[in-house]
Amino acid sequence: xxxxxxxxxxxxxxxxxxxxxxxxxxxxxxxxxxxxxxxxxxxxxxxxxxxxxxxxxxxxxxxxxxxxxxxxxxxxxxxxxxxxxxxxxxxxxxxxxxxxxxxxxxxxxxxxxxxxxxxxxxxxxxxxxxxxxxxxxxxxxxxxxxxxxxxxxxxxxxxxxxxxxxxxxxxxxxxxxxxxxxxxxxxxxxxxxxxxxxxxxxxxxxxxxxxxxxxxxxxxxxxxxxxxxxxxxxxxxxxxxxxxxxxxxxxxxxxx
Length: 256
What we know:
There is one protein chain. The chain has a single domain (2-12, 22-254), classed as Immunoglobulins (Immunoglobulin-like, Sandwich), CATH 2.60.40.10. The chain contains 4 helices and 14 strands. It has helices at 2-14, 46-53, 87-99, 124-133; strands at 23-25, 32-38, 65-71, 109-112, 115-116, 139-149, 152-161, 170-178, 181-184, 194-197, 200-209, 215-223, 233-241, 247-254. The chain has a 4-stranded antiparallel sheet with strand order 1-6-7-12, with no helix packed on it. The protein has a 4-stranded mixed sheet with strand order 3-2-4-5, sandwiched between helices.
């Protein structure tokens, strides 16, 4: 596990879009947004958590894939309250499900570019990501971490749409995430297990609307886990069409 995380963090550090000034800018091609809806109360979720943590080891650098784990709260009733679960994440999962005209939400669920993707553990995932990466980006995103202290990340973000004909439909979303989280579960379906997580979304902000010219600039303060190291924290941003769920571009910036 320690070697896997070292490889993952090395991949994050060497990506050409990330510089020493703690800034990142999206490239001309589209990065794939991977959302894992998971819960510590779900016995079938740990393999999916492990898979998400290992994406860097498989060569999915942040210019290709932006992974986020969104812990939902609807498993909390069975005896274990997931400390990372947010009602907002459960709500988002349901909204995306409605957009796709599906009847049920479930865990673990992977959403790839805003759509349900059930073959995440199969070889076809690489082909699906490659197709997304081959598409020209329909939005440009810039991120800067201004400061990281006292359990908070101060972030500056700017974004611009490639086409502005329907600037009211796309919106920006911003998340703080945490790596190397570990928790001993003492009840529920995973009682007695120690679970490990990476890319856990701690806070979710959005939708942030674009102006009529298809641009936006924002500064936000997002939470970190208390006493977390800079190398274990970061921010992610993406632009998504609110009408159909399509992701126009995504970007991740590890703490530095």
